[in-house]
Amino acid sequence: MNAKGRLGRRGEAAAADYLQRRGLRLVERNWRSSHLEIDLVMEDSSSIRIVEVKTLQAGDGFDPCENVTAEKRRKLIRAAKAFYAANPTKKEIVFDVVTVIADGDTVVEVNYLPRAFDALG
After folding, report:
1. Which residue, of 24, 33, 84, 90, is most buried by count of CB atoms within 10 Å of its CB?
2. Rounded CA separation 69/66 (Å)
3. What residues have CB less than 8 Å from 116, skipping those under 6 apart?
């Protein structure tokens, strides 16, 4: 795995740990269906949370949320529909973003944006 892939995996692990410490349950990590992927599927008492994780090295000079583009949101919505088709639930499906900033191998910042966007926009 290349350095970017290792950085992404560290970020996903940090995000999952962060969310679990806040009471969410990890349902799936790197869930895939064809060419679609969801970084983390988390669950709380009322919702299934589709979580996009964006990880950058400290000093990269921009906000990781800038990488959650309109096209990325469309792909996540398609992935969420595929996940729902494979795992029907009565719970609400929501879209969260977690940004992770690392300095080398050390995670220095984790930010959680619950309900960062919805399937309508």
Report:
1. 24
2. 7
3. 52, 65, 68, 95, 96, 97
Q: Based on DSSP, count helices (H) and strands (E) in the chain, helices before strands.
A: 2, 5
Helix (H, G, I), strand (E, B) or coil at 89: coil
- Site of tokens 């692990």: 13
Under CATH, which number does the domain 3-117 receive?
3.40.1350.10
Domain boundaries, the chain: 3-117
Residue given tokens 């350095």 in the structure block? 3
| Residue 70, SS3 per DSSP | helix
**Burial (CB count <10 Å: 0-12, 13-18, 19+), residue 92:** exposed
pTM confidence score: 0.90
At residue 23, what are phi and psi to the nearest 5 degrees?
95, 0
Place of tokens 């009565």: 90
In tens, the pLDDT along 81-105 reads 999 999 999 999 999 999 998 888 8
Strand partners, 32: 37
